Amino acid sequence: MSAHAGPLASLIFASLFIAVTVIGFLAARWHKADLGQLHEWGLGGRRFGTLITWFLLGGDLYTAYTFIAVPALMFGAGAVGFFAVPYTILIFPILFAVYPRLWSEAQQKGYLTAADFVRGRFDAPLLAAAIAVTGIIATLPYIALQLVGMEVVLAGLGLNGEWPLLLAFAVLAAYTWTSGLRAPAMIAIIKDALIYVTILAAVIIIPAKLGGYGAIFAAVPRTKLLLQAGSANNWGGQSAYATLALGSAAALFLYPHAITGVLSSSGREVIRRNATILPAYSLALGLIALLGYMALAAGVGQMPAFAYGFHQFGANFAVPALFLKSFPDWFVGVAFAAIAIGALVPAAIMSIACANLFTRNLWKEFVAPTCSGAQEGRIAKWTSLVVKLGALAFILALPHAYAIQLQLLGGIWIIQTLPAVILALYSQRLHPRALFLGWASGLAAGTAMAGSLHFKSAIYTLHIGTVSIPCYAALSALLLNIVVSYGLSLVWPSRHLGTQ
Amino acid sequence: MARRVRRLAGIGLLLAPFAALLWVAGYDRAMPTLAGIPFFYWYQLAWVGVVAVLIKVAARLLGDDA
Description:
By secondary structure, chain A is mainly alpha-helical. Helices cover 74% and strands 2% of the residues of chain A. In chain A, strands 1-2 form a two-stranded antiparallel ribbon. In chain A, helix 3 (50-59) packs antiparallel against helix 13. Chain B is built from 2 helices and no strands. Chain A binds chain B through residues 79, 82, 85-86, 89-90, 92-93, 96-97, 100-101, 212-215, 217-218, 225-227, 229-230, 238-239, 241-242, 245-246, 268, 272, 275-277, 279-280, 282-283, 286, 290, and chain B through 14-15, 17-18, 21-25, 28-30, 33, 35-38, 40-41, 44-45, 47-49, 51-52, 54-56, 58-59, 64, 66.
């Protein structure tokens, strides 16, 4: 064991990374078509079958969020980090109940983005633009989280400083540019294979070395093992936990990349069937979350060899340190490649989804309504590049003691699109102007709450009378948004009753 | 009438995970442990399997009119 992996690990990591890069560029030739066109570049020509679509969508659950951010929170803060498990369980009843309906409406009217729905339902360009802008802004910190994940494993290999991340970033940008959505779709298959191998090794070999799951939990300090119980005056850590789970679950399928993934599936039945199969992912996610406790039990935080990594990245270094301590050199190379590629694929998918959104709903809508397919394609490519640079700016500008804060911040913003995109599916009464003001107040309140915590936490404590309720700011801001949206809709009689 | 009952039952099954997982005080404890794993953790992991079954049954009950 040493501070960094040996040369063998770096060699294997580099070979896998180069192999994936080559595939990324070759993907341009898969179902060869004119990649200057937006629908070819950004939607793979809408040619992806059920299997590939679900590699893309199911793959969204295994990102740097899963491997780095969640275990880091378990390692540093304890039980609260486990909220990712109820979060990823609750997404499936939501997916099952709501999204087939959304899919049907999209199918009938040719919608591809959340902003398309809003545009079509209300004929309110300003509201549609607000939804599109929210999608892009909320995705930036989510992409930033992927870059942090990559940074951490590169440091684990002993590649410090800015240049390795910039190199990985350049590779990502280059093959997204040339191949569009075909690149991450092809790489997703290899990524999943690498990740399954790593998960299997991690949840079997490491607990065996540490004396079983019982011994691992015994090594966790008592105060971290359970949540802080609530009382009549303070609902404590339990209300924070429940709101984190519910808020994150409601937010997930509103992200542009997730909406595109859902809508490009081949039918209602596919969505419903997958809602029963995909929970298997949540079990794996739960076991990966426990890697944070395994890192505690292994004592990597106190080892001088890893002091540098923890100093630089805080708890986010827990999983790389655990892998360095537990695995032979060659497998460290495989596991780190799995994490890095597992960050690269969603980063590409997310930036492409943002590019589609910008081109369809902002550029074509407001700037150049008559632009050609080739012009659309060019705008989208530039947007995908700008979006990635924006994500880099997030890393530099915001503190990230816990990388998960980046994703929670994105959740606070994206969830504000829920009334216009989802609730309007069920309620004809909502007025577009009311929805716009609801969106604006939710966004302002959510950002203000996160800002008052200096963007270091997303749990804002509400004081209602004498009761303190710690609550995920996404959920309390959404509540305000819903109240404003419905309240003002009562005042303004709806003018779009005829559309349904 | 039977259709209405099936529909309500199906919706109930889809709402059950929310009640079971969002009422945190109901499972925020260490005992009983399972193979050394505190209740808090294995209870939630067990719900992964439960939710898959519930959705499957709900799909039967609701047919295509969810």
